[in-house]
């Protein structure tokens, strides 16, 4: 590893974020600490506090990277059809929950310490996902107003998230060992059919 003074602030930030991702993938979020991140990259915890406000900030920065990768994969669909794009988005979401469970859970289950507010910049990152869902749902039923689209996108994605969570925790056996992707297909088929006809 390079000497400490050979890393710029941006490089140190990138090293720390990658260390967070690696540590969480290896040991889970509950065992993460600034000290462990610092040890992983060969710095002191005090040095990291010059780059990140606290552990929450470090986690949110790492989550922002995960969200960016997730969103990029979700919108990378070859079909121009909104319904097929939504199907692809949901399948990618569930696949990430199953294949990269610790990182996926860190995004959606991290709780801010001391009930601190989630910063606005991070709220915008999470809102971007819903915005992509809203755009496609609007194409399926343009007569619906903004409030209806807003509600429907969150209702649909809340259901997708529930399936993803069960899949991530390997709890689908309680539903009769049903395939997660089959559940997603069923959910979207019935919900979107109803949405388009309403």
From TrEMBL:
GO terms for molecular function: DNA-binding transcription factor activity; transcription cis-regulatory region binding. Keywords: DNA-binding, Transcription, Transcription regulation. It holds the Pfam family TetR_C_33. Residues 10-70 form the HTH tetR-type domain. InterPro entries: Homeodomain-like_sf, HTH-type_TetR-like_transc_reg, HTH_TetR, MT1864/Rv1816-like_C, Tet_transcr_reg_TetR-rel_C_sf. Coiled coil: none annotated. PROSITE patterns: HTH_TETR_2 (PS50977). It comes from the Bacteria. Residues 33-52 bind DNA. PANTHER family: HTH-TYPE TRANSCRIPTIONAL REGULATOR RUTR, TETR-FAMILY FAMILY TRANSCRIPTIONAL REGULATOR. This is TetR/AcrR family transcriptional regulator. It comes from Alcanivorax profundi.
């Amino acid at each position: 590893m390079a000497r400490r003074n050979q890393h710029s602030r941006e490089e140190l930030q990138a090293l720390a974020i990658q260390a967070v991702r690696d540590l969480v993938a290896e040991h889970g979020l509950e065992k993460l600490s600034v000290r462990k991140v610092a040890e992983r990259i060969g710095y002191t915890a005090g040095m990291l506090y010059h780059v990140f406000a606290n552990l929450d900030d470090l986690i949110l920065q790492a989550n922002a990277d995960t969200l960016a990768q997730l969103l990029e994969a979700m919108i990378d669909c070859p079909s121009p059809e909104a319904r097929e794009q939504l199907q692809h988005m949901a399948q990618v979401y569930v696949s990430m929950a199953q294949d990269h469970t610790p990182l996926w859970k860190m995004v959606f289950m991290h709780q801010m310490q001391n009930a601190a507010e989630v910063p606005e910049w991070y709220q915008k990152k999470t809102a971007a996902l819903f915005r992509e869902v809203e755009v496609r749902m609007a194409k399926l039923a343009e007569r619906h107003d903004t409030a209806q689209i807003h509600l429907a996108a969150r209702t649909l994605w809340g259901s997708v998230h529930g399936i993803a969570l069960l899949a991530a925790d390997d709890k689908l056996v309680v539903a009769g060992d049903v395939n997660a992707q089959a559940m997603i297909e069923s959910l979207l088929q019935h919900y979107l059919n109803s949405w388009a006809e309403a």
